[in-house]
Specification:
The complex is a heterodimer of chains A (about 100) and B (about 375).
Chain A: H1 7-10, H2 12-31, H3 34-65, H4 70-92
Chain B: H1 2-17, H2 20-32, E1 45-51, E2 54-59, E3 69-73, H3 91-97, E4 101-106, H4 119-138, E5 143-147, H5 149-158, E6 168-171, H6 182-186, H7 206-216, H8 220-230, H9 235-249, H10 256-268, E7 276-279, E8 282-285, E9 293-298, H11 306-309, H12 312-315, E10 320-326, H13 336-355, H14 358-361, E11 375-380
Parallel strand pairs in B: 3-4, 3-5, 5-6, 6-9, 9-10, 10-11
Antiparallel strand pairs in B: 1-2, 2-4, 7-8
Classes of the chains: A mainly alpha (about 100), B alpha/beta (about 375).
């Protein structure tokens, strides 16, 4: 008498989706737990602290060398962009740019 | 160029004559090599208004002058072409086919200049100006359809203006933020401050938004790749999956100040559920919305679950305030077989019904002080 195997035992796709159906709800539940959310919060805090420290070091070095930092360049770029927008608005008489067909 | 054409012809020939396994290989190679990437946002259109990064697109294909105009309002976190994903799988195309004149507000890609945009910027400035431009173009205030956060912008705009839209439809607009997913849980009081998520441009980086959405369905990406691999023998299906994958991964920066305001007002205070939201120095009361209103949500929506969306129907002041539950997910409402078979018939059927009623077949005069006695109709579709 031949052994009747379930679909997932002979079909990789069926096996994957069978596993996914079992695992997904548990994972989704796990993500909602305070433990996971607290872990995410701590990971985010550490990541920000590391970024801030690295930025601080970079900016100190740049300042010591007398070269502009990326933040200063970004601020300058933002100011120029805003100025260009204001000029365009003044030229068209308002904020909008109605396009005629 | 000629080489590429010859290669495409050859792969076309092989694809149609060979068996499924060879077709899988050919389709996979074709996709990987960039020879067969699906074209997205292809319906012909003209830009009729722009401000900053935002623009208003008027779809020109098949539109007859004088037909009711629909203004589509996308969410702020993704690109607007989801409304016009692919030929044959386009919300815009189907609305045009149903005889509507269609416009879509494209928020563009925010950058450092948009970091200080508030919710009021979008509701009181961009939305008002875009509706004015649409009204100028089509001669009457349009019907407004918004998806997700775009639906909320549309609702808050309608709650802030006397000039009501001809009809207002929201798709998966999260109202009760206690029921919204991980982004809301993580930014609740005592965990991550919304300002902590901003990058040096002052906006929420796309990667952060993507991570938040991936957390909702941790295995979602793997499932999509397995589905793509499984359907690789079918060129049409492969293109459809690829287009949707590319869109889903193509998040754009979320304007920082708006994000902070959204988390504080909508998530932490959960103010929408009270029917009153204060921002931009004003209180917006949802009960002041008098336009015919339809609230559509998906039963399988993980981003804006039904429990989060349902309450909106009872908060607006419209005499006609209906809701429809569809057997769909968050994006399934806008694309694919669910859009074609469920969302579109629901939208056009409801619009046909309300547009034939007297108060809105008249050229759209502001509908003020409408009868507040409501007719709340709840129907379930797609069971």
């Amino acid at each position: 008498m031949a052994l009747k195997l379930p679909d997932w035992a002979t079909d990789l796709k069926a096996a994957f989706f069978a596993a996914e159906r079992r695992v997904s709800p548990r994972l989704e539940q796990a993500i909602r737990t305070d433990t996971f959310l607290d872990a995410m919060t701590v990971a985010n805090s550490i990541s920000r602290l590391a970024h801030r420290s690295a930025d601080g070091a970079r900016f100190s070095i740049a300042e010591a060398l007398g070269v502009p930092t990326s933040r200063q360049i970004l601020d300058l770029q933002r100011s120029i962009d805003r100025l260009v927008e204001e000029q365009q608005s003044a030229r068209t008489g308002c904020d909008d740019n109605p396009q005629q067909p | 160029m000629i080489g590429a054409t010859l290669l495409t012809d050859l792969t076309d020939h092989v694809s149609t004559t060979a068996g499924p396994q060879i077709r899988r290989v050919v389709n996979g190679l074709r996709l990987a090599a960039g020879l067969d990437r699906p074209g997205v946002g292809c319906t012909p259109r003209t830009v009729i208004w722009s401000r900053g990064r935002a623009s208003l697109m008027h779809y020109t294909a098949g539109a007859d002058a004088g037909n009711p105009t629909i203004l589509l309002v996308p969410s702020l976190i993704n690109r607007s072409y989801i409304w016009d994903l692919r030929h044959g799988d386009s919300f815009v195309e189907h609305l045009l086919g149903a005889g509507f004149d269609v416009m879509c507000l494209d928020w563009g890609e925010p950058d450092a200049r948009d970091a200080h945009n508030t919710m009021s910027t979008y509701v009181d400035d961009y939305m008002v100006a875009a509706v004015a431009a649409a009204t100028r173009r089509c001669g009457s205030v349009p019907i407004v359809i918004g998806h997700c956060f775009g639906g909320l912008i549309a609702v808050l705009w309608a709650a802030s203006t006397e000039q009501q839209p001809r009809a207002l439809i929201t798709l998966a607009a999260p109202t009760n933020w206690d029921e919204v997913g991980p982004l809301s849980w993580l930014t609740r009081q005592g965990r991550i401050e919304p300002e902590d998520v901003l990058d040096e441009t002052g906006n929420v980086p796309p990667a952060a938004m993507l991570t938040a959405f991936q957390m909702i369905r941790p295995l979602g990406d793997i499932v999509t790749y397995v589905t793509l691999f499984d359907r690789l023998h079918d060129r049409e299906a492969t293109q459809a999956i690829w287009a949707l994958m590319a869109w889903a991964r193509g998040h754009i920066p979320f304007p920082g100040t708006t994000f902070v305001e959204m988390i504080r007002k909508l998530s932490r205070e959960n103010s929408l559920i009270t029917g009153k939201v204060a921002f931009g120095g004003r209180i917006r009361e949802l009960s002041s919305i008098t336009a015919p209103f339809l609230n559509i949500y998906g039963r399988k929506d993980h981003v804006a679950p039904p429990e989060s969306v349902k309450p909106l129907t009872s908060l607006v002041g419209s005499t006609t305030a209906d809701e429809r539950e569809l057997n769909a997910g968050h994006i399934g409402l806008l694309v694919g077989t669910t859009m074609r078979g469920k969302t579109m018939p629901t939208v056009t059927g409801w619009l046909d019904k309300v547009l034939t009623e007297d108060q809105i077949t008249r050229p759209s005069t502001p509908q003020l002080n409408a009868d507040k006695s409501k007719r709340l109709g709840v129907e379930t579709n797609g069971v």
